[in-house]
Specification:
5 strands; single chain; alpha+beta; globular
Length: 154
């Protein structure tokens, strides 16, 4: 594995934060760069993972998760719109609409990407169903047509 360093001249003070004494790019800047620079499949997996870490999704407090999600997405949308002539901006804006903190693993993100590329509509993630007095959360669901797809990590 080879280390790649990217030097950007467009970094602003608000793009840099310090974690354990190490200067790093902020979450919004990192997500923006991933969407712009990574291949789409990698950008989707990385974006979902960044959202999951930031939002810490809780099935019983989804309002809190969704508020953090909307806030971060709005920040990244604003950043992307400021890159008027940047290659990959339109693709990044399209990918941003597909990201979700509710994808519980990279495998679920990749499966969602494959299904979307095959023409499936956007699924509900971690869709709650109750059957025989048991509660289940479905990885990918299309409730209107009663379809569920589960990702088995094994």
């Amino acid at each position: 594995m080879q280390l790649r360093r990217h030097y950007r001249e467009d970094l602003h003070d608000h793009d840099i934060i310090t974690i354990n004494g190490v200067p790093v790019t902020s979450l919004a800047r990192t997500l923006t760069d991933c969407l712009l620079d990574l291949p789409p499949a990698d950008a989707l997996v990385a974006g979902d993972s960044l959202l999951r870490v930031h939002c810490r999704p809780d099935r019983w407090r989804s309002r809190d998760t969704n508020a953090l999600w909307r806030e971060l997405i709005a920040d990244v949308e604003e950043r992307l719109s400021s890159y008027r002539h940047r290659n990959g901006r339109v693709r990044a804006q399209s990918l941003l609409k597909l990201l979700s903190p509710w994808a519980e693993s990279p495998g679920e993100s990749e499966l969602r990407r494959i299904l979307l590329a095959a023409g499936f509509p956007l699924p509900d993630l971690q869709h709650r169903v109750v059957a025989e007095n048991n509660e289940y959360f479905l990885d990918l669901a299309w409730p209107d047509i009663m379809l569920d797809v589960e990702f088995d990590g094994a």
